[in-house]
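Sample 3 of the quickstart, ligand zinc ion:
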Amino acid sequence: MKFTFAQYEIFLDLLKSKNYAFSGYSQYPQSEKCVILRHDIDFSLRKALELARIENAKDVRATYFVLLSTNFYNVFSRGSYEMLMEVMDLGHSIGLHFDEKRYDIVDSKSLNLYINNEKHILEELLGESITAVSMHRPSKWILESNVKLEGIINTYSDCFFKDFKYLSDSRMLWREDVLGIIEKDQHDRLHILTHPFWYSDNEETMEEKLVGFIDSSRPERYAQIKENFRNLEEIISFSKIIY
Ligand SMILES: [Zn+2]
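Result:
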C-alpha cells in the first residue's frame, strides 16, 4: 500500500466493503467484526488533521494518540488545541501517546504514575476522558510483559495483538500486504496502526518526507517569532528565510 491519501481512501473503502465496524478500544466487544484504527502522532498535528478529515468524509472513526512530551508540537498552544478540538469534532477519539524515555521508570508502579499524570493533564485540556494509551517507541519490557495499567487501556496489552490481527506502518513499512489481508477477509478483528506523517498527496520517499518536514520548519519558526515579536518584517523579511 502506497503512502498517499488516495491509497488511504482505497484502504478505508476496502474495510467498509468488508463490513468492518470502525471501533474504539473500549467499544469493540459490541461488534462481531471490527477494526480499530490507531494513529500515533509523532511529528505533526496538521498531518493528523488532514487524515481525520479524510476519514470523516467517509464516515470512519479512529483514535488519534498525542504526545505531551515532544519538541515537535505543543498541545497547549492555541493552534494545536484547535486542531485537536477539530479532530474530536470530526467524530474521532483522542488517546495518550506516551514516551517512556521522558521519565525514570523502574516498575509498573512508576509507569502507572506517570501515565496517569499525563492522562489527567490531557483530560483537563480537552474536557474529555482519555481511555487509551499507546507507547511511543515501546521498550522491550512494555512489548513483552503485558503490563496492567490502572484506569486506562494499554493498547499494547496482549488482547490487541492476540485477539486482533495487528498491522502497522512503522518506519514507513507495512511488513505484510495490508490490502491483501483485508481483501482475503480472514480476520474479524483488525488493529491497524498508521502514522499520519507518512501520508501525502503525491508519492514521496521517506527521505523526501523528512527533508520536506525539516524545510517547513523555517517558515513555521518565522511565524512563531512573528507572533511574539513586534515588527519582525523590519528586521528580517519573510522572503529571506525561504530557500
Ligand atoms: Zn510514536
